[in-house]
Fold this protein.
Amino acid sequence: MSTRLRLLLFLVAAFAAVAVAVVSALRLLAPGVLGPFGDLSPGLVGMLAGTLPEAAIGLGGALGVMAVVLLARASDAGSAGAGSGVAGSRDAAAMDAPAVPARGGRAALKAGALLAALFVAVTTPGGMIPVAGYAFALAVLGGTGVLLVLLVMRRPLVGVVVAACLTGVVAWAVLQLDGAALLPRILAAFGPIVPEAVVALAHLGAAAALMVWVVLDGRGERGRVAAWVRHHRRAITIAAALCAVPYVVARASWLTPWPQFGGSAEMFAAEPMMQLTGLMLGTGVLAGGVLTLGLVLPWGARFPRWMAGLGGREVPMTLAVVPAILVSVLFTVGGVEFIVAVVAGPAPVGSVLEITLMLPFWLWGPLLALATWGYAMRGSGDGRGARGGGRRGVRARVSQAGGGRPNRLGFGRPRRSAQMCGDRKAHVGSGPQVADVDRLGIGIGIGIGVCLAAASASASALSSWLRRALYAFRSPWTIDRTIPGAPRQTVTPIQRSVRTRQPRVPRRASR
């Protein structure tokens, strides 16, 4: 992790912790001074213990976050000063070493960071998952438009077809489900909850910033837990993505005459916007599941080729880790909050099980955090395979190990040490396997490729025929005049206007 990124994470954590500390202290001492920021929904601790204990724990967690930031920065300054004093000519990359020089001190500091992040997260104001769901669903709609533009720029034919399909879906939603009034209604509902959302964002930002620092700073960990997560990260990621299936299936049933989980045909006939809202939320959850799978799929390491301007480039580590950690914190706290609220209420046991299984955010959050940690360790370059298949990483490791000149596969020729054999196994295991590729996607890709090839061949033949016809029509006297013993010449229309037509010279009879 670079020094600039570490400093940015510490700044975010510090400013968010200051905001949480101020709000928590005022809630303890003078609740009436906060105005709209004082009337917050109780979070997980507030449901179990009350408002005052929640504010006290939030204040303690915020102070803990600031203490961790100060200790980490002091550790960075000490390690930087020691490095410059011992070897002033050392390479600049050595400044990106782990923050705490002592192994035990680093582990203790990380444990304190996780504990402080936990205290801040469990005091987050309640009811934020629905707000985040609506916001993410709107972001998915906007992101779909951006991806469609990139697709049209790189693959015009496929982009036009996809745009036509999406236009039909939007037209159906607007005409049949009163979709034109959905966006103004959602934006109007966001107004009263803005103060509460700002406080919740401060809590989540402080906790997520520390967790991102712990995850990215521990990319080279070699402990048992890290090894287990690295070895099973594919299974963990798939399990996390499967947590989206129950809700997506329930919302997809709203398109049938037998809607499940909070809907009926009569209700949708009376108010079609409710059906559109459920479908939009289901689309957002489906997008979340697909993005979760991106932590183990090839396009999670490099942007797909069809994205104009980005295709083939490596995905920045922070672009995947930061949102995933933020969502994992929100899902873990909000999922447990859902369960506590349902159990504490008068709902029967069947309803409790239904909500627990249909909204498994309590499981999705921790699994997403572990999957993100495995994704970060995958790109650590610690001898266990580089990101995206690793030819470049293996080649660099072989050159560093003195294994000789690498061949086309990226391995050294002259020497075959045990480290190189381990690198070979890691390289083979880290690349995308055939079983991981969606066969349906392969079939669709082959079909689209065949159609594009046929259309390209037809267009090429048609353009060639039109070019020849137009050329013959505009310049009927343009012919090749070959003179024996002279180089081949072509008379153009401009030359024809200034020259006189010469008769063809007969060829000599062959002897």
Notes: The CA atoms of residues 79 and 85 lie 10 Å apart. The radius of gyration is 32 Å.
